[in-house]
Amino acid sequence: MKKLSWNFWGLLPAYLVMSLLMVLPLLIIFYVSFMTSDAYGGYKAIFSLQSYSQILYTADWDDNLVLNFQYLKIIARTLFLSGATAVICLLVSFPVAYYISRQSNNMKTLLLYLVTLPFWVSMVVRVYAWVLILSNDGVLESSLRFFGLVGDIDSLLYNNAAMMVGMVYTYIPLMILPIYASIEKLDTRLIEAASDLYSSRMNTLRRIILPLCKPGIVAGFILVLVPCLGTVLEPMLLGGGKTMMLGNLIQNQFGVARNWSFGASLTVLLLCIVLFFLMFQAHRASKLRELS
Amino acid sequence: MNILAMFKPNRDAKHYPGFGAVGVLFFTFLYFPILVIIAYSFNSNRIVSVWQGFSWQWYASALQNEGLLNSLRVSLTVALFATLIATVIAVSAALVLERGQNVKHAKLSQGVVNLPLMLPEIVFAVAILILFSQLGIQSGMLKLILAHSAFCIPFAFLPIRARLQGMDNNLEQAAQDLYATPLVTFRRITLPLIAPGIFAGSMLSFVISMDDFITSNIVSGGGATTLPVYIFSLVKQGVSPELNAISTLIMVASLLIATPCWLIAKRSR
């Protein structure tokens, strides 16, 4: 009995903080998303599905609901850019992680340190660095011009590509680390065995290495995808005002637009998208455990 | 590392040609932006992109910038309190989850502690904004400390738990066999042994708190501006050499925190 009470008191603070500062606010968000918004911020305690219908429909002058793709476009862009960012991160991370795993022990530690180091640098600073590089007369444009590669270009900044560069830059270490961990666990004798049996390198990669690293790849993919889906900073600094993502849209509803219930319903939507991916990963992980 | 060796055919089956080149390109990509900021911070020209000459002047003006120093003060205070709260909670949760006997709902508790890692930050930020407005909390500082404490907990928890997992609990059992009370065992045996984990965990949560932008940007407003929020406002105003100097100073500070953490983690492995 005494042991149990130790357990109870030890976990109590964590439960208290998490339920008061995480779970309760999420329940409030869920509740507000079903309420009517108040013009001055806040909400009126009147049940309505208006904020959810606003994602698809807008009321016109005669109060008829008209299909509006404005928000769907933002949601689609968020999904597309986040997915594309995760794919690019994967394509780069796998060779890099493999390359690191083939180094000597000292070199490995050093390279891993170099991978994690930017994480300690403020995210705002890291994204700002790309403003400096991509802006008009920035490093990239002036060097491209110096080599005569471009004539007169508009701007490298404020578009989807700039945003993706920023997202890849911020989140790629989250992909490298889990992939590296799974490559390290891989039994290298399997690669040698495959080679002894005249398997080409490509074949070995496709049939042996990649399948065995799947847990790391899936984990890295989710680790990059989830923060990308809710990212705010890259669209604001590198995407300019025109290219919004879901995170900015939510932030705007609680800030300038002062439409709390709409913001809350968008938040619930984002949460559902993220939960879908998390459950997909949990499902995969449990299936893998069954197999082994 | 011989560059020419990269082009020689390598018969080792575990070698993949081209992966090394991707690795080199990747590390260039990772460090190039950082070098650009540092280089430009020494540019004496007010127009960032046109190089005029070497100068320390922007560092001097950064160190005299009242707004910057104020936001630094806010960030440090918030990070200090948030780290303290998060670390205490994380240590006690980690001890129960790794050392407690027949812990009920261990998996659920682990999930609860790690909850912030699963949510996109913007979701947490707006949720806690509504909570604070419902509770009528006015003080920007208090709001920031509460919010930061919550999302720092898993970052403090993970290294501490890893340390406890990697450590033999024979020593604790030996102490108990010698009639040490649980409190004495904790103070004399467990605590010194998990100290590197606690150090790493608290440093990590300190840095996470210092670095946070999304939540701070939404939650603050009660006159408490944190460093990242202040820098963001500077970036919005336009690129300036002083901003580069500030960014470089922040990077140097991060490096000074990161390296000892890495060394301790490396030694304790």
Model description:
- The complex is a heterodimer of chains A (292) and B (269).
- By secondary structure, chain A is mainly alpha-helical.
- Chain A has one domain: MetI-like (MetI-like fold, Orthogonal Bundle).
- Chain A contains 13 helices and four strands.
- Chain A has helices spanning 2-32, 50-53, 70-101, 105-120, 123-134, 139-146, 160-185, 188-196, 201-212, 214-229, 233-238, 246-254, 260-291; strands at 35-37, 43-47, 57-59, 65-67.
- Chain B has twelve helices and no strands.
- Chain B has helices spanning 19-41, 57-63, 66-99, 106-113, 115-118, 121-135, 140-165, 170-177, 182-211, 214-219, 227-237, 241-267.
- The longest helix of chain B is centred in the N-terminal third of the chain and has 34 residues, at 66-99.
- The two termini of chain B are 27 Å apart.
- The chains are: A mainly alpha (292), B mainly alpha (269).
- At the A-B interface, helix 1, helix 3, helix 4, helix 5 and helix 8 of A face helix 1, helix 3, helix 4, helix 5 and helix 6 of B.
The largest interface is: A-B, 87 and 88 residues
H-E order of chain A: HEEHEEHHHHHHHHHHH
CATH superfamily of the largest domain in chain B: MetI-like
Largest sheet of chain A, if any?
A: 2 strands, antiparallel
CATH topology of chain A: MetI-like fold
Oligomer: heterodimer
Computed Rg of chain A = 24 Å
CATH topology of the largest domain in chain B: MetI-like fold
pLDDT averaged over residues of chain B? 85
CATH class of chain A: Mainly Alpha
Helix count of chain B equals: 12
Number of strands of chain B: 0
* Mean pLDDT across residues of chain A: 86
Q: Can you give the helix content of chain A as a percent range?
A: over 70%
**Global structural class of chain A:** mainly alpha
The tally of domains of chain A stands at 1
Instruction: Please give the share of residues in helix of chain B.
Output: over 70%
Distance between the termini of chain A: 37 Å
User: Uncertain spans of chain A, ≥5 residues at pLDDT below 50?
Assistant: none
